[in-house]
Amino acid sequence: MAAALTIPTIVAAYDARVTTRSVQSGKDRNAVYQEFLDPYGSQPMRRIFIARTGSGPLPAPPGISKLPESGEAIVSPKLGEILGANPGARGLVPGRVIGTIAPAGLGGPEELYAYIGTSPASLNQAAPLGHFGAPYARHELLEPSTLDILRFTLGCIVLLPLVIFLAVCARLSGESRARRLAALRLVGLSVKDTLRVNAGESVVAAFVGAVIGLIGYLGVNEVMARIGLPGLRWYPADGRPEGATIVLCLLGCPALAWVVGQFSARRAAQSPISVRRTGESRPPKKYGTWLLVPGLGIIGGYCGMSAIGRDPSGGSASAVLVPGAVLMTGAGLAFGLAPITSWLSRRLASASNSLPLSLAMRRTEVDPGSALRVVTGLVLLVFGASLTQGVLIELDQISRRTSPVQEYSLPISELSPHQRTQLTALEGVRSHGLTAQSWVDTLEEDLPSVQGLVATCAQLAVFTRSTADCVDGKVLRIEDPGFLSDEDARPGGRFPFLLSDGRKLLVSVPRDAVTVHAYDPSEFAGPSLLIPPSLLPRGTQLAGARFVLASSSDPATVRSVLDGIGGVAPTASVEPVGIVIDSLAQLTVIRSLLVVGMVLGLVIGVSAFVVSVADRAMERRGQVAALVLLGARASTLRVVQVVQVLLPLAVGLGGAVVAGWLAESSYLITGGGAVHWDWEGLPLLFACALGVMLAAALASVPMVRRHVDPEHIRRD
Description:
Blueprint: H1 2-20, E1 23-25, E2 31-40, E3 43-52, E4 72-75, H2 77-85, E5 96-100, E6 112-118, E7 127-132, H3 144-170, H4 174-186, H5 191-227, H6 236-239, H7 243-270, H8 272-276, H9 292-307, H10 318-335, H11 337-351, H12 355-366, H13 369-399, E8 405-411, H14 417-424, E9 429-437, E10 451-454, H15 457-463, E11 464-468, E12 476-479, E13 494-498, E14 504-508, E15 513-518, E16 529-531, E17 546-552, H16 555-568, E18 575-576, H17 581-619, H18 621-629, H19 634-671, H20 681-700, H21 710-715
Parallel strand pairs: 3-6, 4-5, 10-16, 12-15
Antiparallel strand pairs: 1-7, 2-3, 2-7, 4-6, 8-17, 8-18, 9-10, 9-17, 11-15, 12-16, 13-14
Helix pairs in contact: 3-7, 3-10, 3-13, 3-17, 4-5, 4-7, 5-7, 9-10, 9-19, 10-13, 10-19, 11-12, 11-19, 12-19, 13-17, 13-19, 13-20, 19-20
């Protein structure tokens, strides 16, 4: 609970520090500033250039005592490490580094940030410096809409299973506890006092557990803050729980244990005779099962509308209906397990001729509540995993290009020939080319001009959807049915291209053309001429050209290529065509936090399963002893134990896979993205469900002991 509640606190602490250091323009005539945001590899890097224009005092941002003078720089610790390890990156921060920014002026330890002193003449778009600190959040680690999605998802995959786990723990040793409480009632204790005894046990145990949990979390936070997650590192103080979180953990867990204890002990306190004589148990309530009806109805309705070709995305109602339906479906899966398992067990026991199966089904029939305690955590884990897949797919669609090719455009003037060779050899880079505008004598007149593309036919094919009639070694006109034709690129026209050595390459527009279908956006969407690389004089390039690389567009490859570019040409201005580097960084953070949530959910689900199975084995010692005295074999008892666990687990996981996939699909449908049905993730869900069942079956076998304790014989 502390970990789940502190994740938004870490994000809020990051945003608060970033907001307080945000530079604002004003009427101060003592200095001007200009802010730059550039990618260094796959990380965003911010540089604030400050130029003095007067002799008056200047405001100081958090984390530094005063702004640097011209020729000086103050950098973040991470950027300082990069400058020290990579001399080629010193061009990013001109001047002498005189200090580092303290944590109060940084969002996190890994942030790349710098204040650089310079002269007013070197700034092209300078604004008067006002003050530092904005009245509203700026440059957030996660966008508000994305943060809301993260909160909801973490609630489904962490907090919902956590509530079930706490309820399970409060019901541990339910049968033996009920017999003890019934004995207290039979010797004269009142109903109220009996309930108080039970509440005292539960509340004290829950409080001690909450204290241990908080202490354990504090230790884990100190370690993880220094290790960090992919895309996110935080200061240890950010991850320490706030007062409200501590109060909620120390009071919420005992309060929940008290509430559950009151309900679980009421039967023993009010009817002790039926408990001591093992009276007939009541059938489980079916109210919780009805939550599946509206939940599945809503998400199934959205899926049905998409299946018949109607797009229900874009409405404000879906923002409320879909999350509500997901919560109702998850709660229905949890509370509907007991009645469904009881009904199915009764049917199977009536139709079965197998002794182990009959014993297992009859036991499950008379005590279906144990199924709820044993398997609910694992069922909700699989349900949450499917929902997490949908969130990642939706964020992936928003944050990256929809085309399969990602382009990276760099000014060729900022690259040496050796660097260009290294860039083309980077892992993940599939092709490269040049784009350049033809040279014009003067900008005062509107003279005709064309854009040329220097590439071979094989290179062109990588950058575009398709090509036709391409011939290597010849200048060709480029025709793209998806774009308007260039009226200046008429056959017979001649256009000069400026070379790097000052000469000009004269290119004639031919009649022959290559037909392409370019992606949008793309550096290769718009050029009118395809120029073969062999036409360029040896040792020269087109002046003012841009060097364009291509790779696949999956986020892992994009980050790898950007990191490689940062290592080869750290001072070059990189433009990842069609994506924003902030969005790529946000997607990395979201993935890391959702993985943390899934790990927490896994720990909760497995813990609930382990303690429940162990508790059931302890509760059934007397029954196992009776079966052993009647001649039951060890193999029979083990089969009974495994079947008792696998039946409710199979029912719950089957429902979780179907309901979770429908919930994921409804989320994708209402999100408005290109992907509506996650067919690729469905086999993964089935594999997870089968793996959970196999692990549960293996874990259940050691819980059966044939050793007969005389105390259990005497009791029965």
